[in-house]
Amino acid sequence: MIKELWAFYGNRIAVRDAYEWRDDAGNWFRSYGNENWEFGGDGLMQRRFACINDMPIKESERQFHWPLGRRPDDHPGLRDLCL
């Protein structure tokens, strides 16, 4: 998954994200989304709204390639990948 900050103001943050996954049949998908987070005075998230869309892709269309775990720092972000 790749998340990028989209906007922020006061106690609210908006992020964009995308991730690639496959189902039990081996079909690949890319999921795109937007999340809006609102934080309380204690610094904890008090509201989260998310919208996620799944798009079937071919394995050859995958753009996220790294070993299981944290995304490497030098891997392109969403903007760099034109997503």
Report on this model:
The mean pLDDT is 93. The protein is elongated, with a radius of gyration of 15 Å. It has strands at 2-9, 12-22, 28-39, 45-57. Helices cover 0% and strands 53% of the residues. A 4-stranded antiparallel β-sheet has the order 1-2-3-4, with no helix packed on it. It is built from no helices and 4 strands. A hairpin with a 5-residue loop joins β2 and β3 (28-39). The chain is an all-beta fold and 83 residues long. It has a single domain, classed as Nuclear Transport Factor 2, Chain: A (Roll).
Could you write a compact summary of the structure shown?
Helix content is 0%, strand content 53%. The mean pLDDT is 93.
Tally of DSSP β-strands = 4
Tell me the strand percentage band: over 45%
Going across the major beta sheet, what is the strand order?
1-2-3-4
Largest sheet: 4 strands, antiparallel
Radius of gyration, in Å, reads 15 Å
Instruction: Report the CATH architecture.
Output: Roll
What average pLDDT do the residues reach? 93
- CATH class term: Alpha Beta
Count of discrete domains: 1
Tell me the span between the first and last alpha carbons.
12 Å
N-to-C series of helices and strands: EEEE
Would you tell me the structural class of the helices and strands?
Answer: mainly beta
Comma- or semicolon-separated keywords:
83 residues, four-stranded antiparallel sheet, Nuclear Transport Factor 2, Chain: A, mainly beta
